[in-house]
Amino acid sequence: MKNRLFPQHRFVQACFSRPVDQTPIWIMRQAGRYLPEYRQVRSQAGNFLTLCKTPSLAAEVTLQPIRRFGFDAAILFSDILVVPEAMGIKLSFSDGEGPMLDPPIRCRKDIEHLKATVNPDNDLDYVMEAIERIRSLLQDQIPLIGFSGSPWTLATYMVEGGSSKDFGTIRKMMYNNPSDLLLLLEQLTTVVTDYLNAQIRHGVQAIQIFDTWGSVLPFELFQTYSLNFISTIIAGLHRVDRNGLAIPVIVFSKGCGHRLKPLMESDCDVIGLDWGVDLGKARRQVKGRVALQGNMDPAVLYAPQAVIRAETKKILHRFGPHPGHIFNLGHGITPDVEPEQVATLVKVVREESRAS
Q1: pLDDT, tens digit, 9 for 90 and up, residues 82-126
Q2: Which of 75, 147, 179, 266 is 20 to 30 A away from residue 68, measured at CA?
């Protein structure tokens, strides 16, 4: 970190394990259906994909939780699956069934039909315009997080054709046709690297890589099929913004808290943790080499406010008075949570971390 210039935002400072006045907080899926103002804009858009692809509306819903709760970071409103769509797969969302990708990738010929490279400024121009709009509206009061799915996670959707309970199709490919799967992952790595660098050029101030389905992989194959490609992406990122300020990289690999050592070797700045990990033990294990993000169970937000307060204090206490903690849920906020519960969470994080 020598000779790097750091933004003064509390969130970014914490990402680089620098001392802050209080623990920063943002929440995965903080712009979503639990907010009545989001539901209104979603209704105006007509469907989720149109909402993602309309920069003015995407900017509006990105800022809604910032106005309501005062989070320490905004995260770009989009979806990880716009990447495979830009590569030539038809993407649609069905209520109650999740995303559908057609045609699914099942063999080398299918992979060869994909666009091997994507020009983000053309093929994903609506994302870039949304970033520019959001940065203008934020007026640099808080930083904007950009993101992408990891190659492995994107590949699971592309091969399965959507969500999956057992990931049987991609796991068969992994064992029966590993060269095909590796070719797909290599192409995705190129596209994701270009996509994230474009986000940085257009103004994002932090990057998160969602490796949502890394836990599907056996321990000995996690490095081969997921982490190696994440590491290649991170190595290819321009990790300073257009003002020459350092940009942190967060890796969130759900269900992979037992893989902290290899995750640290990816050269990320922050590791996101789900609720299955003891935050204090994780802090001691990483020894200050990376910051940690998380890791409240999203279901806590269904509880009475006294329970929310107690559970929040537990997490803050487990990490202790050390630099390098970003408070977050261990996964995305669920749609039926009451906004008042989130307000309580933010208030407690502010009060308790400032007091410590």
Answers
A1: 999 999 999 999 776 689 999 999 999 999 999 989 999 999 999
A2: 147
Q: What angle do CA 200, 201, 205 make, to 5 degrees?
A: 35
Q: What is the DSSP letter of 5?
A: B
CB atoms within 10 A of CB 258: 11
Fold classified for 10-297+324-335:
TIM Barrel (3.20.20)
The answer to whether 314 and 279 have CB atoms below 8 angstroms apart is no
List b or e across 5-24, with b for residues whose CB sees 16 or more CB atoms inside 10 angstroms: eebebbbbbbbbbeebebbb
* Tally of residues, the chain: 356
Report how far apart, in Å, the C-alpha atoms of 4 and of each of 183, 288, 315 are.
Answer: 35, 18, 30
Look at 3-12, 36-45, 130-139, 328-337 and tell me which has the smallest mean pLDDT: 3-12
268-289: b (≥16 Cβ within 10 Å) or e: bbbbbbbbebebeebbeebeee
Please name every residue paired with 206 in a beta bridge, in sequence order, or none if there are none: 145
Give the DSSP letter of residue 210: E
What whole-number percentage of the chain has pLDDT above 90?
A: 90
The whole-model pTM stands at: 0.96
C-alpha to C-alpha distance for 95 and 86, rounded to whole angstroms: 22
Q: Which residues are catalytic?
A: 29, 33, 42, 79, 157
User: For residue 246, what are the contacts with CB-CB under 8 A and spacing of at least 6?
Assistant: 1, 4, 5, 6, 7, 12, 16, 239, 240
Residue 91's DSSP bridge partners are 101
Q: Is the peptide bond before 295 cis (omega within 30 degrees of 0)?
A: yes
Domain segments of the chain as ranges: 10-297+324-335
**Torsion angle of C-alpha atoms 11, 16, 18, 23, degrees rounded to 10:** 30
Token pair, residue 309, equals: 């307060």
d(CA 264, CA 246): 18
